Amino acid sequence: MDEGLADLLHRVVMLIGEAARRRTDGQDGLTYSQIRLLGTLEDIEPATQHRLAQALSVSDPAISRALRPLEEGGLVQIVVDPAHARRRLVTLTDAGRKAFHDNGKPLYDEFRAALVAAGFPYERYLEDTFRLAELLEAD
Q1: Is residue 24 scored above 60 in pLDDT?
Q2: Mutual orientation of helices 32-44 and 3-24 as an angle, nearest 10°?
Q3: Which pTM does this prediction carry?
Q4: 3-state secondary structure of 30
Q5: pLDDT grade, residue 1 (50/70/90)?
Q6: Contacts 24+ apart (CB under 8 A), 25-31
Q7: Which InterPro entries does UniProt cross-reference here (predicted)?
């Protein structure tokens, strides 16, 4: 990938993350990172901790630390994988799913509405982003 494009993509991701943090941190006691983790888990559950770490581009120890307060708060359930005793499976609880939908979905809707109101071709952006992700994963 062109170094300039990689820098631009990184900058866009960082700006989106910062905007999301400003809107969500502290809401219902959840941080943006926790909301993002819950949303990612909803997309891929049940997931091993390793798969969840890969999906969020963080280390296995980082995901383990991030899951602790969510498990203690009853938002995720972590169990030993019956097929492999050294793996742990993570799933959302009903409370975790509700927390994501109460916090993450409104954020998504807010960003989408702002982009559409500004005349940004949101649907095309979404299609292109998915296509880019597929290309990068295949690389």
Answers
A1: no
A2: 110
A3: 0.68
A4: strand
A5: low
A6: 27/103, 28/99, 28/102, 28/103, 29/73, 30/99, 30/103
A7: HTH_MarR-typ, MarR/SlyA-like, WH-like_DNA-bd_sf, WH_DNA-bd_sf
